[in-house]
Design a protein that fits this description.
Elements lengths: L3 H12 L4 E4 L4 E3 H18 L5 E5 L4 H12 L3 E4 L6 H10 L2 E6 L1 H5 L5 E4 H5 L19 E6 L7 E6 H15 L6 E4 L6 H14 L2 E4 L5 H9 L4 E4 L1 H10 L11 E4 L6 H11 L3 E7 L3 E6 L13 E2 L3 E6 L2 E6 L5 E2 L13 E9 L5 E6 L4 E3 L2 E3 L1 H9 L4 E10 L5 E9 L8 H8 L11 E5 L18
Parallel strand pairs: 1-10, 3-4, 3-5, 4-7, 5-6, 9-10, 11-12, 12-13, 24-25
Antiparallel strand pairs: 1-2, 7-8, 8-18, 13-14, 14-15, 16-17, 17-19, 19-20, 21-22, 23-24
C-alpha cells in the first residue's frame, strides 16, 4: 500500500517547483515552497513523535495549513484538523479522545494543549527552511490517517479514523467525479478543518496539480473578486450562493467557472435558480458524511442532472436504502471510530447515515428527511444534545431543548427553551451565553434563549420535541 496523494504531491513539487500553487490575499507559494515547508513539518514530527502518533492541526485557512497537513502525513503520522474556533474545553476533549500527542496551531490552541509536541502555524509559514533535507518518501505510510470529528447521534462528538486507503479512495472518487486536473484553479472558501473543505480544496486539488486560491473566511467581496480572477472550481455552501445571488448589484460574468457546487446542508431550489439566473452558472451538489467522505455528485453538466436531487454515487461508492434510510459503502469511508464504536455500520459494511431518502430510476439520490437530530448552522453540523448537555450544567437550568430557527432559506440559527430549576432565579440570556462561551464553539451557542414554565414530556419523562411550539 502507498499513500498515492503524497506521491502525487511530491511529483508535482519536483516537476513544477518554481510554479505558483497556493494563493491568499497576502502571498503566493510555489510548489517548491510548499514542499520545503511540508518537509520542515515532517522532520520535526519524525524526530519527536513515534510513527502513527496523532497531530492536531488547529488553524484557519492559509497556505501553511496545506504544508502542515501534508507534512504530518509525510512523517507517517495521523493528521487531526479541528476548528480554530474551538474552545479550550473542546480542544482538550478532542485531544483526549483522539489520543493526540502533537499540535500545530495558533497561540490559543497551543496554550490549551500543554505537554504536546507543538509547532506554531507561523513557524510553518516561515519561508527560511533548509531545502537541502527534503522528505521525498514517507517514513511509514501504514500508520498515516486523518481524524475528523463527527456529531454522531449522541451528545458527545465522535472521532472518525480514515486511514491511507480511505484518503486515496476519496481523492480518486472526487477527482473522477469533478474532473479535477492541473489546469484548474480551486477556491478554498469552505473551512479546511471540515471534511468537505479538506477533501475538495486540499486533497483532490493538490493531488491533481491544481492551483488553489485560499480565503480565510466568508467575505462576499473577496469571494466575488476571486471568482472574477479565473476560478474554475468553486466548492461552496448554500448561504454563500444565496449571498452572492442577492448581494451583488453590478453585472458579473464568470466565463472561467466550470463547476460550482454545494454541500453541508440542503440547497434550496430558489437559491440555485437565483444563482444560475444571476451568473449563468448552474449549481451542483455533493452529499456525504464525515465518516464516508463525499459520496454523491449532482453534476449540472451531466445528462442525469436533477436539481431536486443530490446526484448519483461517485466512483467507488455504493448507495443502498435500508428501511428508508440512506446507507453508504465507499472506498473513501472511515475504518472505525477512535473509541471503537461500530454501531452505525451494518454487518455487510454499510454506514447508516441517519438520513432518509430514495434512489430514482436514473440513480439519483433524493434526501427526504432525517433520523438524526443534527441541525445545519452555516454548513456546520450541530447536535442539539451536545448543546443541551452543556446548558444543563448551569445551576439554574432544570431542563432545556435546543431547536432550529430558520432565518432564510439557507441561514439557520439555534433557539434554546429553558426551564428554571425550582428555588433558583430564572436565568437570563446573557448569563447563559456567557456560561456557554468557554464550553462551546460560537456557532453552537443559541441565538435566542427563552424561559418557559415547562416543556412537554413523554410518559417516560423525556422531552417530546415534536410537541413543542417554537
Amino acid at each position: 500500500m502507498s499513500l498515492l496523494l503524497i506521491e502525487s504531491f511530491l511529483h508535482q513539487a519536483r516537476a513544477k517547483s518554481g510554479e505558483a500553487v497556493l494563493f491568499d490575499d497576502s502571498n503566493v507559494w510555489t510548489w517548491g515552497e510548499l514542499h520545503a515547508a511540508a518537509s520542515a513539518v515532517a522532520r520535526k514530527f519524525s524526530a519527536e513523535l513515534p510513527t502513527g502518533a496523532a497531530v492536531m492541526l488547529c488553524a484557519p485557512n492559509q497556505p501553511a495549513f496545506f504544508a502542515a497537513y501534508l507534512g504530518v502525513l509525510m512523517a507517517g503520522n495521523k493528521i487531526f484538523p479541528i476548528s480554530p474556533d474551538s474552545t479550550a474545553i473542546e480542544l482538550a476533549s478532542a485531544a483526549h479522545d483522539g489520543n493526540v500527542e502533537g499540535i500545530i496551531g495558533i497561540t490559543s490552541s497551543i496554550n490549551a494543549m500543554r505537554g504536546a509536541v507543538a509547532m506554531h502555524i507561523d513557524e510553518v509559514a516561515d519561508k527560511r527552511w533548509n531545502e537541502g533535507q527534503l522528505h521525498d518518501q514517507l517514513r511509514d505510510d501504514s500508520q498515516c490517517a486523518m481524524l475528523l470529528t463527527s456529531s454522531g447521534t449522541t451528545g458527545k462528538p465522535k472521532i472518525a479514523h480514515r486511514n491511507a486507503v480511505s484518503l486515496n479512495g476519496i481523492v480518486a472518487s472526487i477527482t473522477d467525479a469533478v474532473q479535477f486536473d492541473e489546469s484548474d484553479r480551486v477556491l478554498a472558501a469552505v473551512p479546511l478543518c471540515h471534511a468537505y473543505g479538506v477533501e475538495h480544496s486540499l486533497l483532490a486539488a493538490i493531488s491533481a496539480g491544481a492551483k488553489v486560491h485560499i480565503l480565510r473566511g466568508f467575505e462576499l467581496s473577496l469571494i466575488l473578486k476571486s471568482l472574477r480572477q479565473g476560478i474554475t472550481v468553486f466548492p461552496g455552501v448554500p448561504f454563500m450562493y444565496e449571498a452572492l445571488s442577492h448581494g451583488v448589484a453590478e453585472d458579473v460574468h464568470l466565463p472561467s467557472l466550470r463547476q460550482a457546487y454545494s454541500a453541508g446542508s440542503p440547497l434550496p431550489l430558489s437559491v440555485s435558480d437565483a444563482f444560475a439566473m444571476r451568473f449563468g452558472v448552474p449549481i451542483g451538489q455533493v452529499y456525504g458524511t464525515t465518516e464516508t467522505g463525499s459520496s454523491t455528485f449532482n453534476d449540472p453538466n451531466s445528462k442525469y442532472f436533477d436539481a431536486n436531487s443530490v446526484g448519483r454515487a461517485m466512483p467507488g461508492v455504493v448507495l443502498k436504502i435500508l428501511d428508508g434510510q440512506v446507507t453508504i459503502m465507499s472506498t473513501g469511508m472511515f475504518d472505525r471510530y477512535t473509541a471503537g464504536d461500530t454501531s452505525e455500520i451494518t454487518p455487510d459494511g454499510y454506514f447508516l447515515t441517519g438520513d432518509l431518502g430514495r434512489i430514482d430510476k436514473k440513480g439519483n439520490l433524493h434526501i427526504t428527511g432525517r433520523l438524526k437530530l443534527l441541525i445545519d448552522v452555516g454548513g456546520q453540523k450541530v447536535n442539539p444534545l451536545e448543546v443541551e448537555q452543556a446548558l444543563s450544567d448551569h445551576p439554574s437550568v432544570a431542563s432545556c431543548v435546543v431547536l432550529p430557527m430558520n432565518l432564510s432559506p439557507t441561514v439557520t440559527r439555534l433557539k434554546a427553551l429553558v426551564v428554571a430549576r425550582p428555588g433558583m432565579p430564572s436565568p437570563v440570556a446573557q448569563e447563559l451565553r456567557t456560561f456557554l462561551k468557554p464550553r462551546l464553539s460560537n456557532y453552537k451557542i443559541p441565538r435566542i434563549f427563552e424561559v418557559r414554565d415547562s416543556l412537554p414530556q413523554s410518559p417516560a419523562g423525556k422531552i417530546s420535541r415534536h410537541r413543542i411550539q417554537g
